[in-house]
């Protein structure tokens, strides 16, 4: 019991997290999506570009007339074509084409489905002779790894070496680092700028995640998967924004999660159709989700400022009131914090990954105030209410100073007296 109370109290420290910490996690996960969809330059075999390697796993055990360059080129066209078509169809929501807003909204809402179906038809009909890798779907629904005989005395993975090698034996201590992304999803969505009214239930969410992970672990199932990018994309779909991108309101509903999980279950009835889905098309969908989530990551906007002409900056509170060099200084510090998260790629120090959350909070509360002024941190890292309060105070201060130059402070003296 004391441990549980201490753990719940410890999670309350997450409330100290600001946009600085939120954007670090969001940008990290978006980067992982891009790397997985395009190809990891530091190793691995996932992504649309890796099939250009003649030794890639998809080129093994093929016929003599098999041309891996054709397969790789078609994969690139399918992957990037899927991403492009999704964005193109989503642009139909605002123009005046088509006869009604309902049709335009339908094209926008089902752009992912339309694009995936179209490029799947292109692959399986027009280029049916090119053997592009397809989605790995089993012939029937059954456990992936079976380690049991009639006596049910075998233990996995000790008594099933051939399957243990494929499944991999992972340390639970090191795998705890994955809980950062799983727990961080509600935190990234419930920030004030998203104008979500559901509330802040960090301890409750963490408790439910722990319960589900415990049940999955007992049954030998995978732990909960972090869906930060998908949740951000879904939040964007349910949000109504003004011309400046500010969220006006969010159509909050629980039915989406219910229907999406029901569709996952019903997909088991369509295994033969899922086999037709080319893997590059799926990579293109992942790449779209990453690019669609990027505009909501403030760090991406700060990073783009490094390559833009200062006079062409989009007017925001920090570009309006801060020196450009100070903004870039904050961006460099942010970049260092993001790069530090790649310690998870080194297994010897990956065990420290769960503490990176607390290190980010500590850097924000103790290190950054030594580098930047308090008002600068408000403009860069504050919520919309803090920023508006600072702007109002600055406006009043400037007005009072200008009145003092004219020798007319009667209005401000009356306000102070009241």
Automatic annotation (TrEMBL):
Segments passing through the bilayer: 20-39, 68-89, 255-274, 286-307
GO terms under biological process: monoatomic anion transport; monoatomic ion homeostasis
Keyword Transcription regulation appears in the UniProt entry: no
Source organism per UniProt: Fistulifera solaris
Coiled-coil positions: none
Membrane-protein topology: Multi-pass membrane protein
Compartment(s) where it occurs, according to its Swiss-Prot or TrEMBL record: Membrane
Residue ranges annotated for the Bicarbonate transporter-like transmembrane domain, each copy included: 70-382
Entry keywords, A to Z: Membrane, Transmembrane, Transmembrane helix
GO cellular component: plasma membrane
Protein name: Bicarbonate transporter-like transmembrane domain-containing protein
Molecular function in Gene Ontology: solute:inorganic anion antiporter activity
